[in-house]
Specification:
Mean pLDDT: 95
Structural class: mainly beta
Distance between the termini: 40 Å
Strand content: over 45%
Shape: globular
Radius of gyration: 13 Å
Largest sheet: 6 strands, mixed
Order of helices and strands: EEEEEEEEEHE
Strand order of the largest sheet: 2-10-9-4-5-6
Low-confidence stretches: none
Number of strands: 10
Length: 122
């Protein structure tokens, strides 16, 4: 199975930017795509974005389009989430998770990381 580790979270002022990283290790040969999710205080987990390893296909939640960008670096086995124009309601724990081809199509993910905290101040 694949192991995922998120990093890059922190405290940022409203309007600022952060780039999150999701580093994959272990058995990655069956991983087709990586998705990003977040869970804010008092809210349920929500989908943010996803990308297949080749970078040929991406998905974004409507609320994140135009502000967030997902990309891959195959040489480093890493997926990135660039977040711009951050708002206080973007404050959440951000997670990445892996899927195979059909999981990507059906939005079904497994092998979750531990998450990284993003806090956006007013």
């Amino acid at each position: 199975q694949v192991q995922l580790v998120e990093s890059g979270g922190g405290l940022v002022q409203a309007g600022g930017s952060l780039r999150l990283s999701c580093a994959a290790s272990g058995c990655t040969s069956t991983t087709y795509a990586v998705g990003w999710f977040r869970q804010a205080p008092g809210k349920e987990r929500e989908f943010v974005a996803a990308i297949n390893w080749s970078g040929s296909s991406t998905k974004y939640a409507d609320s994140m389009k135009g502000r967030f960008t997902v990309s891959t670096d195959l040489a480093k086995n890493t997926v990135y989430l660039q977040m711009n124009s951050l708002r206080p309601d973007d404050t959440a724990v951000y997670y990445c998770a892996a899927s195979g081809l059909y999981g990507y199509i059906r939005n079904e993910y497994d092998n979750w990381g531990q998450g990284t905290q993003v806090t956006v101040s007013s």
